[in-house]
Structure formats: C-alpha cells, structure tokens
Write a structure and sequence with these properties.
This protein has helices at about 5-25, 40-55, 70-75, 95-100, 145-150, 150-155, 175-185, 200-219, and strands at about 30-35, 60-65, 80-85, 110-115, 135-140, 160-165, 190-195. The chain is built from eight helices and seven strands. The protein is globular and about 45 Å long.
Length: about 220
C-alpha cells in the first residue's frame, strides 16, 4: 500500500487555501503573501506600505516568525491590527494557520491583510496560504544568484522587489542577471528596484500594489 505523506499534506493545504480565498472574497478582503530571506527587508517594506497606503486601504498584518514578536510590535506601533504567528521551528506558514487566525481580525473593517512569511527562500514558496498574490523580496547584499538557486520562489511570485538598491554600487550584484533569471522562469513577473531607506522606486511598486489590491476588493 502506497503511503503518500507529502501528497496528502499538500492536498489538505490546498483545500484550506481555497476555503480562505472563498471566505475573504465574500468579505472583499485581499490577502498578500510577502516572502523573502531573513534581513531582506520584509518588515521595513510592509511598514512603508502601511505609511503610504493606509489612507487608501484599511490594512491588517499577520506577522510570521519562528519565535518572538519584535516585528509585530513595530507594526502595532503604527496603529495597525496585527496578529503574531510563531511557528515554533517550522520554516513556513501553512493555510490552516491563516484560517485559524482570521477570526482575530474584524474582516468587515479591513481591505487587505499582509502576511509576512517566515524568512526563507525555499519552504514558503511551496505552500499556498489563500493569498491573492505574492510579493518576493531579494536584497542586494544577498547576491544576484538567488533566482537561479531558488527557482520556485521566483517562478511563483507576482512581484519581485529588489530591495536595498541604494547599496548596489557596493556589491558585486548583476541586476541584469537577476532580471533574466527571474523572467526566464516567470515571464509575467513584475520587477521593482527599490530602496526602502531612500524611498527610490517605492512609488512605482506601490502604484502597482495599490492597483492590484483595488482590483481584488472591487471585483
């Protein structure tokens, strides 16, 4: 008798992911999965999104970490509803965790929930969590080989934010290589060169992001 451990887990996760999409669609709430390595700038970018788009959208955040609540406290200080998810060692967030946390939000008072996934370029890409779309962050100090080495992350994302771009002159970082590696695997991916520190590139990214959210919640 065949034992399909991985298949069964993934199938179960997909069923839960589909349920989340249905529930949030009925509430007209958009869910955005933000992924990237530790130190890529996920929390800082989400903070900038809140600061620039909170007058347009009602925002909530699910903050995923293996342990602690440092990033959640940063988000909460902005007056945004946030729920901390500690995975206690797990390298990714699964759909059931999101489904269990949604009742902690007043969904009628929200337009969009951002999920900051666990810092990891492998596991988070394998699990749908009911998101409407994905944003992957790659910071310049990480190097220009990541889209080639971790193809699933970059082939399943809707937007690639090359973050900390103000540092590009200080690293051996080939932007053209990143763009080629990413678009070879994902021709429709939108790529943004952003410095969250200086603000360069943020307007273009946030214009795209705002339109995607608007399209989802008005559908």
């Amino acid at each position: 008798m065949e034992i399909k451990v991985v298949h069964q887990i993934m199938e179960w996760n997909e069923d839960c992911s589909d349920k989340i999409k249905k529930d949030l669609r009925e509430k007209k709430v958009c869910l955005v999965n933000v992924m990237g390595s530790p130190g890529a700038g996920k929390t800082s970018v989400i903070t900038s999104i809140i600061e620039r788009l909170s007058d347009r959208f009602k925002i909530g955040v699910i903050e995923g970490d293996i342990a602690g609540k440092i990033d959640a406290e940063k988000i909460q200080s902005l007056g945004i509803p946030v729920v901390q998810l500690n995975t206690d060692g797990a390298c990714h967030i699964e759909a059931m965790a999101i489904d269990n946390m949604l009742p902690d939000f007043d969904l009628d008072a929200l337009d969009v929930i951002f999920v900051e996934n666990i810092g990891n370029l492998v596991c988070p890409a394998e699990f749908n969590i009911g998101e409407d779309f994905r944003v992957a962050l790659l910071s310049v100090p990480e190097g220009d080989d990541k889209a080639a080495k971790y193809p699933l992350m970059f082939s399943t994302t809707d937007a690639l934010v090359i973050n900390k771009y103000d540092m590009v002159d200080y690293f051996d970082f080939d932007t053209d290589r990143v763009v080629k590696d990413a678009t070879d695997r994902n021709p429709s991916v939108k790529i943004f060169k952003v410095s969250n520190k200086t603000g360069d590139g943020l307007d273009e990214f946030l214009d795209w992001l705002g339109k995607r959210i608007e399209d989802k919640i008005s559908a």
